[in-house]
Amino acid sequence: MGRTPRRFRGLERGATLPAVTLPPTESAESSDRPGRRVAVLTSGGDAAGMNMAIRAVVRTAITHDWQPYGVQEGYAGLIAPLEFGHIRPLEARDVGGILGLGGTVLGSARCPEFAQPEVRRRALANLAQLGIDALVVIGGNGSQAGAHALFQDGIAVVGIASTIDNDLEGTDITLGADTAANVACDAVDKLRVTSSSHRRASIVEVMGRDCGYLGLTVGLACGAEAIVIPEAEMSPAEVAERIEDAYRRGKKHATVIVSEGAALDGAALARILEAEHCTRIGFDLRVTVLGHVQRGGTPTIFDRLLGARLGHAAIERSEEHTSELQSPLN
Ligand code: F6P
């Protein structure tokens, strides 16, 4: 018997449509595939390449004769009452034309309440009612903690490590980190242009939560005078010394990269430099917080291919009935 595809709606009845929605299913009805039913969701901070991973999960599942389902807005969609329509079957065409888009067409959300067993029971009930016994969770640390809890609750889960922070244990590079690093690198290159015109030093704060990966890679790629990351803090005096050195060597600009997880954020560091080292450093200072722009990039080739490989491997791993929570390529 065919299932009538539903269009996604907002989390609450009558809520306005979210900004990003999947295109309507083109086929009149979803196929009633004989294989397993697998759902895919994206959770936590969005990351470029998630769409490629969704596409690969959906299309690989279909080639295995499984019925894929998309869950809108991460765990929030998974626990919402089924009649709200946040979990729906997907067809190959539903994920057409998304491979070059940043963000996630499924939408994402942070859902801290998912840590509570009674909240997860709503997800288990929804999955059971739809006959879904496998789940692919695309997301970062918090999302994979939720996936692990679901696994312990008895669902076959494969996690795809995806976050711009590149801070997941057991994974060399998370989906989205390469694009974010490229976006940040491009921004720092642009800042260098205007800094040089004005003979200024630029303090650039990058994301990464508690991890210095973005700060380190961007700082090295952009030839920063100083890189301040949580794993290797640098005192304001040492930063001042590096800036002063650049000034004395006749440079027209200096760049300092600060990870958001460092002890002092960009603004605090600038305040100390101006208050205590202003006569030494020569340059005028400006602070730029790159913020969420780092999450909005067009996926690089690296992230597109990684998303495709991980999405494909997630289904292969699900098929093997191995539901350990690790990168499916491991
Ligand atoms: O985990 C990704 C990330 O962008 C971190 O780098 C940052 O600290 C955080 O998410 C920002 O979260 P939000 O989008 O909820 O403001």
Explain what the structure shows.
This protein has 330 residues and is α/β, with parallel strands linked by helices. It is built from ten helices and nine strands. It has helices at residues 50-63, 74-79, 117-130, 141-152, 177-198, 213-221, 236-248, 266-276, 278-281, 301-319, and strands at residues 37-43, 67-71, 87-89, 134-139, 156-161, 200-206, 226-228, 254-259, 284-289. The strands form two sheets. A five-stranded mixed sheet has the order 3-2-1-4-5, with helices on both faces. The chain has a four-stranded parallel sheet with strand order 7-8-6-9, sandwiched between helices. Helix 1 (50-63) runs parallel beside helix 10 and helix 5 (177-198) packs across helix 6 (213-221). It is elongated and about 75 Å long. Mean pLDDT is 90; it is low at 1-29 and 322-326. The structure holds 6-O-phosphono-beta-D-fructofuranose (F6P). 6-O-phosphono-beta-D-fructofuranose binds at residues 45, 110, 140, 163-165, 207-209, 260, 295.
| Strand content bin | 5-15%
Order of helices and strands: EHEHEHEHEHEHEHEHHEH
Which structural class do the helices and strands define?
alpha/beta
Side by side, the strands of the main sheet go 3-2-1-4-5
The dominant shape is elongated
Question: Uncertain regions: pLDDT < 50 for 5+ in a row?
Answer: 1-29, 322-326
Number of helices: 10
Note the topology.
Layout: E1 37-43, H1 50-63, E2 67-71, H2 74-79, E3 87-89, H3 117-130, E4 134-139, H4 141-152, E5 156-161, H5 177-198, E6 200-206, H6 213-221, E7 226-228, H7 236-248, E8 254-259, H8 266-276, H9 278-281, E9 284-289, H10 301-319
Parallel strand pairs: 1-2, 1-4, 4-5, 6-8, 6-9, 7-8
Antiparallel strand pairs: 2-3
